[in-house]
Design brief:
Elements (H helix, E strand, L loop, with lengths): L3 H15 L3 H19 L6 E5 L6 E10 L8 E3 H7 L9 E5 L4 H31 L6 E9 L3 E6 L2 E6 L14 E9 L8 E4 L3 H11 L1 H4 L3 E9 L3 E8 L6 H6 L4 H9 L4 E6 L4 H9 L6 E10 L5 E12 L4 H5 L4 H10 L2 E6 H6 L12 H4 L2 H20 L20 E4 L12 H9 L3 H4 L11
Parallel strand pairs: 2-3, 11-12, 14-15, 15-16
Antiparallel strand pairs: 1-2, 2-4, 5-6, 5-8, 6-7, 8-9, 10-11, 13-14
Helix pairs in contact: 1-4, 2-4, 5-8, 9-11
Length: 462
């Protein structure tokens, strides 16, 4: 015989520990006894289970239809028997609820079924709890405490709910310890994902965008809009911004007084240098802003959109040819193509970069429609400034340890790898072998990572 009170007390203690509502527990008890009867007696029988929520007493009854002649004793009862056992008022078609007798075997099977169903209900309840908690926080930043480590992830407690942060979603496999408080971006929330209901990330471009929104009130208020973000997590990032108020400088607002705002964000991103770029609806101007401080001699943008019969955008071809001064080619490319890749991802366009000499060899018409004239390019002051940057970079290269970076395949989930074509007269095979960028850097004793856009480097100096 099942001791209903003891069973109920045990299940209630589990529900309190797991924070599962009592009605789910009672539903599990009813379902468990029903399934046990179906397995032990008859799968076609109609069973009702009533649980007294105060005493824990469990009553199981079987529905029987009153008939003149019994053909199925599990579903029917004869009229004469029904009148004898239950009531003289019974008539054909009435439903009789016959009590089910408990025996040891049925009791054991019922308890086992209840346990299995309760476990399932608890899992479902926990899933629903996680889903309901994090769904309103989708695409937002959350902060929690690291409570455990696994081989591939960190387990983070957020207000009593534990989520996983996979190693590949951390910044350059950063070192995180148990007890640390850490912020992350809620990338996706799912009810059914068996691996992780909540997809979290610290390398998603929108993680950077949301950090800026926290630090810059003008972004939170909608005065300044983030148009696009391009990241090489832990190394460098570019953010395109636009001000809806002509009296507010979007770059200055994001950087903050003395770089205070941008410094807070870069500290959270383990030293990731952030370049704020002014967005422009004119593609040529936007690209030149993104390439700064590289000057542009020639720029030609080819934009084509393809629509279906109903007028919906199906595909788009966006490509840009850029000619830069010879002595700024390596700056435009960046170490291992990083600078060019950041620009291409920011403007969402294929970028073809040519040096001035190479453009002449290719027979490219030089329109001088960029942001530098021929006189300025040949101006000794411009040339001296380029060499000055290289000399500073050479000293940094000799005095500082090189940055070690491991490629993170997960970035491809957020940013499509742009197509970058770079042509240089001194390196005929630069298109076929991206490693030639590194060779170019070594020949000039230049660390492009330090040589790259350094307008905001002062804000990262310790």
């Amino acid at each position: 015989m099942v001791n209903g009170a003891e069973l109920l007390n045990a299940i209630k203690s589990i529900s309190q520990e797991k924070q599962i509502p009592d009605d789910i527990i009672f539903e599990g008890i009813r379902e468990g006894f029903q399934k046990a009867y179906e397995k032990f007696f008859d799968p076609e029988a109609i069973i009702d289970v009533n649980v007294d929520e105060v005493t824990g007493m469990i009553n199981v009854t079987k529905r029987l239809t009153v008939v003149q002649k019994v053909e199925d004793e599990w579903l029917e009862i004869g009229l004469s028997q029904a009148k004898q056992k239950y009531s003289e008022n019974c008539t054909i078609g009435d439903i009789i609820n016959e009590p089910v007798k408990f025996n040891d075997e049925y009791s054991r099977l019922a308890i086992f079924q209840v346990g299995q169903i309760i476990k399932q209900k608890i899992r479902e309840g926990e899933k629903n709890k996680v889903y309901d908690y994090f769904l309103p926080k989708l695409h937002e930043i959350q902060t929690g405490r690291v409570v455990d480590l696994t081989e591939n992830s960190y387990l983070i407690d957020v207000d009593g709910t534990v989520v996983s942060l996979w190693n590949k979603k951390t910044i350059n496999q950063e070192k995180i310890n148990i007890g640390d408080r850490i912020s992350f971006y809620v990338e996706d929330v799912s009810k059914e994902n068996k691996h992780s209901q909540v997809s979290t990330s610290r390398v998603h471009p929108d993680f950077l965008a949301k950090l800026l929104e926290i630090e810059v009130p003008e972004i939170a208020e909608g005065i300044i809009e983030i148009k696009s973000v391009s990241r090489e997590p832990g190394r460098r990032a570019k953010v395109a911004v636009y001000s809806h108020d002509e009296n507010i400088d979007p770059i200055g607002a994001c950087v903050g007084a003395g770089g205070s705002r941008i410094k807070s964000v870069t500290n959270e991103l383990n030293g990731e240098k952030i370049d704020i770029v002014k967005w422009d609806e004119n593609s040529e101007k936007f690209i030149m802003n993104a390439l700064a401080p590289v000057r542009v001699i020639n720029i030609l943008v080819d934009e084509e959109e393809f629509f279906d019969e109903e007028g919906n955008l199906e595909d788009a071809h966006r490509e840009c040819d850029v000619v830069v001064p010879n002595n700024q080619l390596s700056l435009a490319i960046g170490k291992s193509g990083m600078a060019a890749r950041l620009v291409a991802n920011l403007v969402k366009m294929k970028i073809n970069i040519l040096s001035y000499d190479n453009a002449l060899e290719k027979g490219v018409e030089i329109l001088w429609n960029g942001n530098i004239t021929e006189e300025e390019m040949n101006d000794p002051e411009f040339i001296n400034n380029v060499f000055k940057r290289r000399n500073n970079s050479e000293r940094n290269y000799q005095n500082e340890k090189p940055l070690i970076h491991e490629e993170n395949e997960e970035w491809d989930d957020f940013v499509e790898e742009p197509e970058i074509e770079v042509q240089a007269a001194s390196l005929d095979d630069i298109q076929a072998n991206l490693e030639a960028f590194d060779n170019l850097a070594k020949e000039e004793i230049v660390d492009e990572e330090d040589e790259e856009i350094d307008d905001y480097d002062q804000y990262y100096d310790k």
